[in-house]
Design goal:
single chain; 194 residues; alpha+beta; Lipocalin; 8-stranded antiparallel β-barrel; 32% helix
């Protein structure tokens, strides 16, 4: 073999032997830091828009129906990481005659790469005491929640607060288009004509 072949062979062996050491290894800690960064980016300055349903008493045992779905909206101002798996979610919560902005201490538990916001009997001023498990994934949220003697489900879409008006406008346009199509179908079929 020529000297040049030996050099290439030596370089190839070095690359194989040192290759794993030269490239940074993704550690569990760096992977977790990346997941947490993505979680924070996903929830800073957003609106959770969707629906909720509830039940109480026998419904909590699966023996009574849930209410019809109702609109749900939470404005999340920001999220910040505390120690370990503890986070603070600063959110505007509106329902009934309540409209409050609260910093809410939560745990974020990870199911693989999926964050689950976890509350265990957390007292919220003016609102009550709640427990919840809310999964956040790919722009959507879904979960369960419980108060004292009642509980339910919630789910919806996560959108940047700055985009909410644009989305509302698109929803209104789609609704108007659907109404026009329905009116056209009624007219074509003779429904509603005297």
């Amino acid at each position: 073999m020529s000297v040049q072949v030996y050099r290439w062979l030596a370089v190839a062996v070095m690359m194989v032997v040192l290759g794993g050491q030269a490239a940074p290894q993704e550690t569990k800690a760096s992977r977790q830091a990346e997941l947490e960064k993505t979680f924070k980016e996903m929830l800073d300055g957003v609106v959770l828009r969707g629906t909720w349903q509830m039940t109480q008493g026998e419904g909590l045992k699966g023996k009574a129906p849930m209410t019809p779905a109702r609109p749900d909206r939470y404005v999340i101002k920001n999220v910040s990481k505390g120690l370990d798996d503890n986070w603070v979610v600063t959110a505007r919560i509106q329902y009934g005659d309540k409209d409050v902005v609260l910093p809410i201490s939560v745990r974020v538990v990870w199911a693989g790469d999926t964050p689950v916001i976890t509350l265990d009997k957390v007292k919220m001023p003016l609102l009550g005491t709640y427990s919840a498990r809310v999964m956040i994934y790919n722009g959507f949220y879904a979960g369960t929640w419980f108060g004292d003697g009642y509980g339910g489900v919630l789910s919806g879409h996560i959108i940047k607060a700055a985009d909410e008006d644009k989305i509302k406008k698109l929803e209104k346009q789609a609704e108007e288009k659907q109404d026009a199509q329905n009116q056209s179908k009624c007219k074509d079929s003779g429904i509603g004509q005297g």
